[in-house]
Amino acid sequence: MTTARRRGILAVITAIVLIALGAGVALAVGDALGIRTEPAPQMQPAAAVATPATEPVAPPEITAVDVPDTEGFGVAIDELRDAIADAPETRGSTSLTVPKVYDARYAPDDDSYALAGDASALTVTAATETGATRAIYDLAAQVRAAKPLTDLIGAHEASALPLRMTDLGAVGVTPNPAEWESGDDYSHASKAFADVFETEAPYIDQTALAAAYDDFDLFLRHSLANGFNAVAFPGFVEFVTFDDVPGGPVYAEGDEHRAKARALREAFAPFWERADELGVKVFLRTDMLALTGPLEQYLQGRFGSLDTENPELWDVYTAGLDELYDAVPALDGVLIRIGEAGPVYDVGGWDYYSALKVTTVDAVRAMLEAFTGQAEASDREVIFRTWSVGVGAVGDMHTDSDSYEAVLGGIDSPALIVSTKYTLGDFYTWLPLNDTLEQGSQRRIVELQSRREFENFGAFANDLGSEYQWALQQLLAANDRIEGVWVWTQDGGPWRAGPMTLYLKAGFWQLYELNTQVAASLARDPSADVTQVTEDWAREWFSTDPATVDAIVSAMEQSRDAIAHGQYIAPFAQQRVFAIGLEPPPMMWIFEWDILTGDSAVLDVMYSIVRDADGGIDAAIADGEAAVSTAAEMRDTVASTDAATWRSPEIRDAFVSALDYEVDTLRLLSSYRSLILHQGEWHDTLSPDARAAWDADRATFEKLAAAHLKAYDGDIDHPALNLTAARLGIERSERDDTMAWLARGLLVLAVAWVVIGMIAARTSLVRRPGAAAARATWIASTRPWRARESTLGMLELDRWLLLIIPAALLVATRAVQTSFLSWTHVAVVIGAWAVFALVMRLFVRRRSPWPVIAAVGGVVMLRCIVTLFALSFTGPGGYWYAFWTEPVLRTIYIAIAFALFVWVFVAAGWALSAQVGARRGTGYVLAAVGAGLLVPSVVVGAIGLEAALTVWNDEMGLLPWGLARILGITTYLDIPSETPWFAAGFAAVLLIAGVLLAVPWSRRRSAASPRP
Asked: How far apart are CA 46 and CA 329, in angstroms?
């Protein structure tokens, strides 16, 4: 067998191996992407059935009140008197008597009662003060709903769920419009009590503290009237000195953290004591790990790291709780979250922060064993939230039954309460009921959100009554360990990226107050008439006129349809989608809150799912248009009411303006829906009609977007959507057709160059300028052992063409691939190749560089041809569409592209071996590859991986633009921030190994020593 034949066979085997490796890489990429779908079982709430509103009934004057002399009764009577004072008129009079006859056999939270008497005299009988005060609050609610007090006469059973907790609302939050105007502050920090805190001693502004106390007292009174009896109060380490922890004090003598803790504890103890006085439990709400600078240093120094699996680490925190409970007995426990933390929740200038460190099953169990042991010993309770989506080994315990059992199975402390969102994920429409709430031996509470963050923060009409009712009824039937609800009246998501609605103090918060009231009603009685609750809410806040009430109730009955089909693309939202080891939410085209996304990953996958659903994209587009019609009908129904029947012109204007805003926003979304679906259709089918439809949609969207921004940009009550990402996506899409034509042109030129190279040796074409260069690149790229001979005798022009043509094609291909929008991508790629080439040239030195240039340039040409072919159909948009949605095409492309990429370096080494030998040639290539990888790795590491990925993704538009602004790409995808340095270390190893192989191992020139 001749040497040439052996080399040819070896080249074929190498090519097969490289393609096989490429196929393996492609399969690994597909597995890492993990894009798959499955149907999501839908909640099935019964349709609300409204009955005509009755005529309002004026309340009587309360002429005599005989109730026990306690603060709880006093506040309840205040609410009743305020309700009567707020009524347009009174009619008649009555007395109210509450004998102090309590029964010790009943639990203190038993709120059953009986009301006896008639319109002129009412008597409450209850076994507990809780029941007696509930009766008074129920009477006040009757007054606000303009209903007869006598309707309540009879026995009332105890509430089905004894624990009814709220967040802190907007207590202590200053409504400063300037903080909301930009609309791009995605911080989750509420900045509650920011006016109270001072950085210098005495650390507390007493005037601001007094105002915050009044704020809190108002919130407590309102929550009690709604039926709640517990509150989650943010903070924990802020109030602890850690003086008595095992192993010695955390803070050094004179450390201001100790003085701050005492000052803050002294300042807020009256808040907690006031709640206790009114029968409201207080749970301190904290993320874990909760830290301060010195606390983190103490834990690092004592345990070597923030080792959350070490039980002794948790003894530090439980000692802090012992200290706190001893100092303020009014506190009832602690509420812990481990799934979100970090800078998005931090307040600048305040050394209290959190870190995502409790990420393993052992860490969670060690933490809970410590906290529940402390709670049992101190007669307190621990509420543990299962919300930990996407973080560590416990990342899916919120939505996966097996994970829930792995984390919490066997932890049966009577002091432990597990809190879980009722949806299988975050608070989105279309998600299934969270079946993890149906399991476990622990006490459970259900989380509900009134001001739905993902549905425009409550700025849209959104009656969740029927859904809440169905969910609670299903869960209670399945799990008798459920004993409460936690209703978020304000919290969830960024505080200042949406409308400035602050519960009880600013904006149109009355619109989503409905969900708070219906949640409390259902917690007391899961069979309550939710339509009646909506009617009572309408009477309390807007009008007692029956026709106006009917109009409001009618509009609210349609509100879920408008949101479910207008803010969501139903065929996509009805599926559980899995990708990159995560479960993206059903509203991915708005990522997140107010950012209309324009990235290819989301929109292409969304299109492919919609395409395969019943009715395809036409049905999905029609669905969005129907949602606009529904919202418009809601608006017309409310706007047609008699303005004179409303409680005030301002509240009517707020309602109608909210519906105007909803109609406008849903119309804009409907146009964008059509645009992105037709865009996907073009990439999928190559249909000119689909492209024309996209172009028409683009014009419509841009017109509606301009009007939307003109109307709502800077409006803190009705903020405009953030359209930056969508417009970036449209800009890239506009270039797709042009890029496809450029790719076709470059492809023709590149193929022509290769063809010339293939036939030049057998025709007179070889004597033409450039033909010899084309021939050399073809021979050197396919038979690199002939690279040296292929470049002998070449003219100077041909030699330079060996370098210029492949380099120009590489730059042009990358520019087209990025639509001339990502010079960062081009710079990194070309920079790495430039370093590779420079190092290679330094090694070659006096020897001819043209053989290796011909080999590398030739393979680069082939690699570019593959990319240009993929780009030639519908441009970069089509390229990425196939990557995200076509597994077969993705696998073929990656296999070939990977094989050619590695063949570049194989060919380079093979070409060099004829000059310097196989060992040294391999060393040259390894060193050059190491240097080419090392430089960009160090640059990215110096800039920061998150910052670098953000810039790159902004230009490429592959992942949601909002990802970096909200969660962080590295955090969301769980990419270690040290990755560039790991790459740099690997590159350094390659560089060193290459240098060691490249240097001569003997002074004597071997027979195989190269000739110049």
From this structure: 45
The β-bridge relationship of strands 163-166 and 154-156 is: unpaired
Q: Is the dihedral of CA 930, 935, 937, 942 positive or negative?
A: positive
Which residue is associated with the tokens 């969910």? 471
Question: Going by C-beta distance under 8 Å and a sequence separation of 6 or more, which residues neighbour residue 175?
Answer: 500, 502, 505, 506, 507
C-alpha–C-alpha distance, residues 678 and 359, integer Å = 42
Residue carrying the six token digits 């920061």: 944
Helix, strand or coil for residue 417?
A: strand
Structure tokens at 686: 């190559």
Label the pairing between strands 230-234 and 333-337: unpaired
**Residue 1011's pLDDT is what?**
42
234 three-class SS: strand
Under a CB-based contact definition with an 8 Å cutoff, are residues 354 and 342 in contact? yes
Check if the beta carbon of residue 313 is closer than 8 Å to that of residue 298: no
pLDDT of 302-358, one tens digit each? Answer: 999 999 999 999 999 999 999 999 999 999 999 999 987 665 445 556 778 888 889
**CA–CA dist 598, 672 (Å, integer):** 10
**How many residues in the chain?**
1012
Say which residues have a Cβ less than 8 Å from residue 787's Cβ, sequence separation at least 6: 776, 779, 780, 851, 852, 854, 855, 907, 910, 911, 914
pTM: 0.92
For 278, phi then psi, to 5°, come to -95, 5
Q: Alpha-carbon torsion 563, 486, 340, 441, what sign?
A: negative
Q: Is 482 helix (H, G, I), strand (E, B) or coil?
A: strand
The one-character DSSP state at 115 is E
114 forms beta bridges with 125, 155
Query: Is 27:891 a contact under the CB 8 Å cutoff?
Result: yes
User: What's the token pair of residue 956?
Assistant: 């490429």
Question: What is the spatial distance between Cα 220 and Cα 894, in angstroms, rounded to a whole number?
Answer: 61
- Nearest-angstrom CA–CA distance, 449 and 437: 16
Q: CB neighbours (10 Å) of residue 16? A: 11
Which residue is associated with the tokens 């960024």? 494
Nearest to 432 by CA among 46, 41, 44, 45: 41
Tell me the pLDDT tens digit for each residue of 2-53: 777 888 888 889 999 999 999 999 999 999 888 999 999 999 998 877 789 8
Number of Cα atoms under 13 Å in the Cβ half of residue 4: 2
pLDDT of residue 343: 59
Amino acid, res. 973: L
With H, G, I as helix, E, B as strand and everything else as coil, classify residue 718.
coil
Rg (CA), the chain: 35
Query: ∠ CA(490), CA(494), CA(498), 5° rounding?
Result: 80
386 and 544 Cβ atoms separated by less than 8 Å: no
